[in-house]
Amino acid sequence: MKNPSAAIIVIGNEILSGRTLDLNSQEIATTLIKLGINLIEIRTIADNQNMIVKTVQELSTNYSYIFTTGGIGPTHDDITAESIAIAFNLPYILNQQIYDILQNYYTQIGEKITPARKKMAYTPKSAKLLYNNVSLIPGFVTNNVFSLAGIPQVMKSMLTSAIPMLKTGKVIKSKSIKIIVRESQIAEPFKNLQRKYNNVDMGSYPFTENGIHGTTLLLRSTDYTTLNSAFEELNKICQKYIL
Amino acid sequence: MKNPSAAIIVIGNEILSGRTLDLNSQEIATTLIKLGINLIEIRTIADNQNMIVKTVQELSTNYSYIFTTGGIGPTHDDITAESIAIAFNLPYILNQQIYDILQNYYTQIGEKITPARKKMAYTPKSAKLLYNNVSLIPGFVTNNVFSLAGIPQVMKSMLTSAIPMLKTGKVIKSKSIKIIVRESQIAEPFKNLQRKYNNVDMGSYPFTENGIHGTTLLLRSTDYTTLNSAFEELNKICQKYIL
After folding, report:
1. Mutation site, B3, B11, B44, interface A, largest A CB count within 10 A
2. Best exposed site among A138, A193, A232, A241 by fewest CB in 10 Å?
3. pTM of the model
4. Cα–Cα distances in Å, from A150 out to A208, B173, B185?
5. Alpha helix ranges (H) inside A135-212
6. Contact B200, B220 (CB under 8 A)
7. B127 CB-near residues (< 8 Å, 6+ apart)
């Protein structure tokens, strides 16, 4: 059986302007890999309704799961929920569960639910909620699209709520070796090894540490027996290069 | 006149697996914004030829400039140059200038140009080169696609070489104010301000510092006079919230 697939849509002018470094994608990537869900692509787009609608429509048909980050909130630039409603041709309506949370909270602190606060209770119709333990407002799930906050701490908590809703796959295991050899020296035997083991994904990553140039060779596969054989063979190849 | 537009294609299994944090996109974003080039989207995709070809074809028609990062190198997983050649239906050939660099270097250190090393001299036909002062191998430009290395230090140096080749636009200036007020309290007047100044892009970013919740309000525009007026008005609005 094939592993479920996924894509991330980062909604955020602040990433595109360089103002903010996107840390959420790595957090989601690290979570998905442990669940055996294959992350196929990440798209970072502006807070623009047409762009969000188009991207959600395209990716939600191509992949098992979509994760959006950002654009959930009370201000006019928070347009994720409405855009996803449009993408799926669903009504954009007041979610009673979220409204109850708001009412509870603002009654407690003696403040009113202003229109901006009420906006946070709107989701696409029949969205499921993704509670979090950091902020008041939950994320939400619309069909196969999981909409998470942009603030990393809040995003992480919503992602934890999403995990039990996801089908898992066979976990890709990885094995790696670091050698003090430049990529160009190991490239030839490494290529031949890749040819021999075509169901092991082999990557090569150069690094420089304290002025020394080396290469990390990384093998990844869901076929653990083959992974082990390939890694054993790689070790033998690398021994030739150890002084 | 409209500003040039741009997109980034991050080519990297290591980003999608969560192994590596992508720092290059922020570096490119920060550079482009100073040049008045509007970064519209970022796509992170796997080291997969079909995916690279498809993405390059789609984005290079939509935007003035494309920047790719990663997949330049001697190993079998470095397939950026060949994929871009395919995307533009160009021959993938030995670049004599790069080959001369290699020959010079390896003669000096008394080593041979192996097939893997020779591979680094291949680019799409008539590609221009992007020299860098960190590593031996230059990046290259194919039509409107600038192919940069994945290692941040090398990428940065190649990007510097690319700058003189880019048409610039009117720089988007930004002004921001930080207030110790939650987003939901300022959302209503901020929305009205956005409605009044539709050529100023207004974003709201909540933050928590030392347990205090606040909001950064950010205004961005290429129309500096209007930006100043809008910011002046924003300051007046915010004064109501300063205790």
Report:
1. B44
2. A232
3. 0.95
4. 33, 24, 19
5. 152-162, 183-196
6. yes
7. B95, B140, B141, B142
Residue numbers of A between 45 and 74 with CB closer than 8 Å to B:
45-47, 51, 73-74
| pLDDT value at A243 more than 90 | no
Yes or no, beta carbons of B205 and A76 under 8 Å apart: no
Task: For chain B, 243 residues long, give each residue's pLDDT as a single digit of tens.
Answer: 799 999 999 999 999 999 999 999 999 999 999 999 999 999 999 999 999 999 999 999 999 999 999 999 899 999 999 999 999 999 999 999 999 999 999 999 999 999 999 999 999 999 999 999 998 899 999 999 999 999 999 999 999 999 999 999 999 999 999 999 989 999 999 999 999 999 999 999 998 888 888 999 999 999 999 999 999 999 999 998 765
CB A224 within 8 A of CB A173: yes
What's the mean pLDDT when you consider all of chain B? Answer: 95
Interface confidence (ipTM) of the complex? 0.95
The contacts of residue B16 (CB under 8 Å, 6+ apart) are: A29, A39, A40, A41, A42, B44, B45, B46
For chain A, say whether B222 makes contact (Cβ under 8 Å).
no
Q: What is the distance between the alpha carbons of residues B102 and B113, in angstroms, rounded to a whole number?
A: 7
A10 → chain B, closest CA residue: B42
Dihedral sign from CA coordinates of A31, A35, A41, A45: negative
Q: What is the least distance, in Å, from the CA of B63 to any CA of chain A?
A: 14
The pLDDT value given to residue A208: 84
The dihedral built from the CA positions of residue A226, A25, B48 and B147, taken in this order, carries a sign that is: negative
Residues A189, A27 contacting (CB under 8 angstroms): no
In a mutational test of the B interface, the residue from A58, A184, A202, A218 whose CB has the highest number of chain B CBs within 10 Å is: A184
Min Cα distance B105 → chain A (Å) is: 13
* Region A217-230 average pLDDT: 97
A41, A183, A187 ranked by CB distance to B45: nearest? A41
Distances, alpha carbon A187 to alpha carbons A148, A192, B77, B120, B130, in Å: 41, 9, 10, 11, 23
Q: What is the pLDDT of residue B242?
A: 65
